[in-house]
Amino acid sequence: MTTKARPFSASELAHEAKREAATSVGRRSWAAIAANCCLLLVGAGGGALLAWWALSFHHSNQQLWMVPVGLVLLGTPIIAWLSVFVSGVGRSLELLWAEPTAPPPPDLDAER
């Protein structure tokens, strides 16, 4: 028993391409949301660690390891967000400031 494969029509191929594009965009947006949530949690954890140290241990200068760890946890997401933002802005500004390229002039010498 052999089944004959029917050829795909252009509309079926276009529909399939749109479905795959929508799926990949959806996956990318979920990945971005997950990454932002993780960065937010890490930053909040760093801020909470610094607040805990300031309220509980600052007056006696104990548990000093909490300060650099809290600063690293608080500062890393901020630097990551800024670098992503600046890289995106830089690309869009390059496109905005780029001079449009004119097409080459037509060849006016008819003998060539």
UniProtKB/TrEMBL annotation:
InterPro entries, alphabetized: ATP-synth_Z (IPR032238)
Segments traversing the membrane: 29-53, 65-86
Domain of life: Eukaryota
Entry-linked PANTHER family: OS04G0577375 PROTEIN (PTHR35165:SF1), OS08G0113900 PROTEIN (PTHR35165)
Keyword terms of this UniProt record: Membrane, Transmembrane, Transmembrane helix
Identification of the protein by name: Uncharacterized protein
